[in-house]
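Figure 6 in text form: structure in, sequence out.
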């Protein structure tokens, strides 16, 4: 998927409501705190998962809770002493590690992103329910939908979700990558992405205000030059990170075993 963007400086791109920036390790904490403040003043408080906060504190977590309820400010304060020693905590799952995937920061203003996705999907389906029902029935030669009752339930769920929807949404993700420094060595650097989404707000004034403040702050920050592939690669990387559990469940015997071909046979009995 091609991503069109404006190059503001070599380490700073703007693609619609998404900001991409390259950053050195030494700038992660101060710049992230500035990002948190600007987003909080315009959109809402950025939060991380409690399990991520535990990883930052203890190096591991027993929590499986996926809601974003721990303040990003607390997460950054917890990470700061480790950064000063040159250690940068990362977060990964057992499934994502198989693909070499993880992140340093994964924060958002919504407690549960899936509710936003459900709300948006229902809005689209309710805009033309007959088209939606026709699609369901055409996908199966057996399925017949009770349209009246289903439509009533769809409206009820949408109303419940609508009460929870904020005016706007923002997220901030920071990941690591590498740039060649010599023919035999690579240097670790970092890519940050801040994305916004208009939900119930009547205009984009708050989003535009946040983008302006962030771009001005990031103009002051030097960092590694981003490749023109960075936005596309980042999108695929995050999709794979979230799809990893399903992929392992479906293809784990092959993906998780480098010697899977040897499992096709056994020694003669």
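Output sequence:
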């Amino acid at each position: 998927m091609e991503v069109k963007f404006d190059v503001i400086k070599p380490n700073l791109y703007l693609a619609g409501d998404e900001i991409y920036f390259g950053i050195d390790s030494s700038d992660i904490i101060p710049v992230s705190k500035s990002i948190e403040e600007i987003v909080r003043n315009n959109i809402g408080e950025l939060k991380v998962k409690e399990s991520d906060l535990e990883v930052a504190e203890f190096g591991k977590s027993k929590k499986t809770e996926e809601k974003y309820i721990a303040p990003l400010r607390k997460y950054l304060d917890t990470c700061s002493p480790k950064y000063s020693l040159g250690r940068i905590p990362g977060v990964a799952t057992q499934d994502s590690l198989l693909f070499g995937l993880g992140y340093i920061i994964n924060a958002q203003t919504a407690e549960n992103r899936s509710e936003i996705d459900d709300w948006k999907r229902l809005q689209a389906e309710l805009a033309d329910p007959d088209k939606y029902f026709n699609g369901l029935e055409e996908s199966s030669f057996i399925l017949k939908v009770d349209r009246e009752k289903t439509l009533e339930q769809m409206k009820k769920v949408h109303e419940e979700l609508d009460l929870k929807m904020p005016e706007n949404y923002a997220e901030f993700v920071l990941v690591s990558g590498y740039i060649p420094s010599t023919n035999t060595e690579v240097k670790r650097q970092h890519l940050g992405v801040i994305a916004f989404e208009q939900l119930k707000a009547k205009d984009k004034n708050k989003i535009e205000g946040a983008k302006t403040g962030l771009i001005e702050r990031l103009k002051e920050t030097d960092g590694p030059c981003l490749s023109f592939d960075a936005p596309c690669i980042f999108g695929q990387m995050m999709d794979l990170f979230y799809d990893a559990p399903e992929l392992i469940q479906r293809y784990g015997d092959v993906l998780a075993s480098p010697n899977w071909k040897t499992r096709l046979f056994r020694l003669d009995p």
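Caption detail: The first strand starts at residue 6 and ends at 9.
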